[in-house]
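Dear colleague,

As promised, here are the two records you asked about, laid out in our usual form so they can be pasted straight into your sheet.

NAME FIELD: protein one
SEQUENCE, THEN STRUCTURE:
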Amino acid sequence: MNNFKKNTILKIILIISFISLITAYFIENVLGHQPCNLCLIERIPYGLAIILVISNNFFKKDEKFIILLLIMVFVFSFLISFYHFGIEQNLFEESGVCVINNITEFDSKEELLKQLQIKVISCKDVTFRIFGFSLTTINMIISLVIFITLIKILKNYEKYRK
């Protein structure tokens, strides 16, 4: 894998990350499908990937470290997506992350009661599908493909370094 190919793959990861976030916000804000708490957590790796790929342009000497960080980001993304997929398929029980809202921000019991009346989206409920796949399933596949690609880049990094 030459330097051109490595930079192209990093740009593709940047584009995929942008598209993933834009799509998630479009589905939420325009189409009106509310995400569960795990869906919101699954967005974090894409934001981190954008920051890391852009920072790679400024810190070329740390490129190998940035690629290693990207690998860890997409391992996290895959694991969270796999866990969420398991909840959707009834392989795992929902955890507290799936049913809790932020209860640390309440100044009074009236605010707490008001928050408890708001319906929390269950992590089991798939409210949006693309080609029959939940967004979690698609995220799991994308994360795995990016992870494998980054491992190949890291494995061959010294071989093609200039």
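NAME FIELD: protein two
SEQUENCE, THEN STRUCTURE:
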Amino acid sequence: MSKLVKILITVALMALMVVAAGCGGDKKDEIKADTKAPIKIGVTAGPHAEIMDNVKKLADKEGLKIEVVEFSDFVSPNVALAQGELFANSMQHAPYLAATLKKEPKFQLVEVFKTVNFPMAIYSTKYKKVDDIPAGATIGIPNDPSNGARALLVLADKGFIEVKDKNSVTTTVADITKNDKKYKIQELDAASIPKAMPDLDIAVINANYALVAKLNPSKDSLLIERNDNPFLNVFVTTKANEKDPRIAQLKKIYQSAENKKFIADHFKGTITAGF
């Protein structure tokens, strides 16, 4: 091989190395740009969106950009997250996530921290004190599996009945093990319970339906669900994003004193911080 050929080959190799180095630099710049881009967080319209808008403002002060994406149903945010269209979502309680993953195990979604509680509570138009509730009283609870289980756990926690497992989110009327005062459990459509209250002695009502009926769980109920219940809402991401440092940053911001105060002031006890 002549000396000239060797020189030409060397020059060509050096040129390729420069091009390769240039491409590597572009890739690093792209990664850096992606890190600075807003992260998309899915929410349902209403309270979750209102809270996330506040989180967005707090995050912006720390240089973390958030794009809040609103959905009108509970199915789409998990589908969008699983498909990589979102970085995370905040719109569901833990049992709903568990049921979704049981149905769609390929979603690879994980809970990363607690958010808020939409407290279920016990109301009555007939009695002002729990001690006044008579034996044999008729108690209205939701007839769907998730909310019905939650209502039974509230009744068990408050001492009205006993059930097999006070933490089981699949509890049914058949799981009642003790009902000394012979309370009559009447299962009704959850949305219709507030209107049925005159025909019931007490009623266990979801926060969203209580709000429609202008009932405040913290002010108008006889008893309110404990805040550390199994139905706390959760912040969810994918397993791939679970260790992303922005998740830890989001947790710090969401569970900050500033955001907790916003929840307390804005919702006035109808929705409470779950952390």
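A couple of things worth noting about protein two: The two ends are 75 Å apart (CA to CA). The chain has two domains: 38-118+230-273, 121-224.

Best,
R.
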